[in-house]
Design a protein that fits this description.
It is a single chain. About 50% of the residues lie in helices and about 15% in strands. The protein starts with a strand and ends in a 13-residue tail after the last strand. It is built from 14 helices and 15 strands. A five-stranded parallel sheet has the order 2-1-3-4-5, with helices on both faces. Among the domains are: about 130 residues, Response regulator (Rossmann fold); about 60 residues; about 130 residues, Heat Shock Protein 90 (2-Layer Sandwich), CATH 3.30.565. A hairpin with a 2-residue loop joins strand 12 and strand 13. The chain is of the alpha/beta class and about 525 residues long.
């Protein structure tokens, strides 16, 4: 296969992608002057990148006509030039494909090569008897049926396409009934499609058999035409089997009943063999497409199930956080607060200075425990998340970091009014994790957070001026980590990106969709 293109990488990749059988071997040609001399004997087809630097499909066709050779030319053009591609087909190109449909290129190239091979066989038949007008008429007739066969396989409905293709085969040999038998993955041969001539009494033929007839089995086993016993129509008999081949694989056979057909010769043998080969390529392509569709459906099902389970896990996680925070507030904090009040009362009644000093220390310890429990409650489930205050909640966390670590902060933007509580919690958890990473690893002096509505969603960006991406993406012990945060944003229908800053530090961007029909809020962060 000659590939005429200044850069034939995409064409070569399409011709050699995995799963194509038989393999298509391609050779690049840099310019028109580099075309080999043995075009009509050493090569099966030519693929040309029309409009690419140094190449014109029209000039290539003119060069081939000038040399007086016959070789199929498949044109690849820009999608906007498909109308011009039709003109090229009318001037001798075998086919024309837009560059965004290169997945069809292997089928188009094989079809062009098959048509050329059929044409050459028919040409040899014509040359053997140049004075025989009947042979020429037969060749033209068979070419018409071949074109009808190809048009039928181009129909979108697979069943309709197969019946239409079998009809063209049957009409070309005056057949009454044509059946397509296919072998499945286990080697079992089953009936796939049937065409019967109008007016043909189907009851005169046997009912659909459970197994294929012997001539079909022979056609599959021998990879060649198989005939029934001779009858009144001649030595060929009333039925024949044609193997359906895709490369080295026999995918089935065509069973043809033609009791009234006479004159079977090499032209008809080439005609039927070629159609069987093309039908094999077509069926293999459809099977691959069906397998891909099933795989994609299964992948989507698994992905949807994964998201469902992750959503349940996130909801359970947040519910547990809310429950623990409520228990701390209603139980532990209340008890410690009561202890603090009693200690304060006791200290006022005790006159001994040593005892007062001890009570002061105990009261201070109780106060510290209360403060820590309140901080734990905030980390578990800030109250602002349930009251539409994402920026206020993030600000409280930044203030705490500034007090504990001495890292300054800036907070800008506004929360969209249509932001759901689940999306608000997701963004806060991302911010919480990103800020924890900065504190633990980045050695930063400043943290910036911005929130804004963008693309029917809410975009949050966390930046720092610290050590950079490698350090800032690590997660401290006890944190879920940014990979888990990425999963959370995907569960919410959004995305998470971690990128290096413009000059230093790290940028963490998270986007989640808004509630449909919501409006942007008017409040801004100070």
């Amino acid at each position: 296969m000659l590939v005429c293109a200044s850069d034939g990488t995409s064409i070569t990749a399409a011709l050699s992608r995995p799963g194509i059988a038989p393999a298509i071997e391609s050779f690049p040609v840099a310019s028109l002057g580099s075309l080999p001399e043995d075009l009509d004997t050493g090569w099966d087809a030519v693929v040309v990148d029309d409009g690419g630097p140094g190449w014109s499909a029209e000039r290539l066709l003119d060069e081939i006509r000038t040399r007086g050779v016959s070789i199929p030319v498949v044109v690849v053009c820009a999608p906007s030039h498909e109308v011009a591609g039709v003109t090229l087909v009318e001037h001798g190109a075998a086919d024309c494909l837009a560059s965004d449909r290169l997945a069809r290129l292997p089928v188009a190239v094989r079809a062009a090569a098959e048509r050329e091979a059929l044409g050459r066989r028919l040409t040899r038949v014509e040359d053997a008897g140049t004075s025989d007008l009947n042979q020429r008429w037969t060749a033209d007739l068979l070419q018409d049926y071949q074109l009808g066969f190809l048009r039928a396989l181009g129909l979108p409905d697979d069943d309709v396409a197969l019946v239409g293709a079998l009809e063209q085969i049957g009409l070309s040999v005056a057949g009454t009934e044509v059946k397509l038998w296919e072998a499945d993955g286990r080697g079992a041969v089953q009936l796939r499609a049937v065409w019967r001539r109008a007016g043909f009494d189907a009851e005169t033929s046997s009912s659909p058999p459970a197994r294929p007839p012997a001539l079909v089995t022979r056609a599959i086993g021998n990879r060649g035409l198989s005939f029934s016993e001779g009858g009144p129509a001649g030595p060929v008999g009333e039925s024949l089997g044609v193997p359906v081949v895709n490369g080295d694989d026999v995918v089935g056979a065509i069973e043809i009943h033609a009791p009234d057909f006479v004159g079977f010769d090499d032209a008809y043998a080439a005609h039927l063999t070629g159609l069987g080969n093309y039908l094999g390529i077509y069926r293999a392509q459809r099977r691959s497409a069906a397998d891909f569709a099933r795989s994609l459906e299964e992948l989507n099902r698994v992905s949807a199930e994964r998201l469902r389970l992750m959503r349940l896990l996130v909801e359970a996680h947040e519910d547990e956080r809310r429950t623990i925070a409520a228990d701390i507030h209603d139980d532990s904090l209340q008890i410690l607060a009561a202890v603090g009040l009693r200690l304060h009362t006791l200290r006022r009644r005790v006159a001994d200075e040593a005892a007062q000093s001890t009570l002061d220390a105990v009261e201070q310890m109780v106060g510290t425990a209360v403060s820590r429990l309140r901080g734990l409650m905030f980390n578990l489930r800030p109250a602002g998340l349930d009251h539409g205050d994402l920026l206020g909640t993030i600000r409280d966390r930044l203030v705490q970091v500034q007090q504990d670590e001495g890292i300054s902060y800036s907070l800008a933007g506004s929360e969209p009014g249509a932001l759901t509580t689940a999306a608000r919690v997701t963004l806060y958890r991302v911010a919480q994790e990103a800020i924890a990473n900065v504190v633990k690893h980045a050695s930063a002096s400043h943290i910036g957070v911005s929130v804004e509505e963008q693309d029917s969603g809410c975009l949050m960006r966390i930046t720092d001026d610290g050590a950079g991406l490698g350090a800032a993406t690590a997660s401290p012990p006890g944190h879920l980590g940014l990979p888990s945060m990425r999963d959370r944003t995907e569960v919410a229908g959004g995305w998470l990106r971690v990128e290096p800053g413009d000059s230093c530090g790290t940028v963490v961007s998270a986007w989640v969709p808004l509630l449909a029909g919501g409006r942007s809020g008017s409040g801004s962060a100070p």
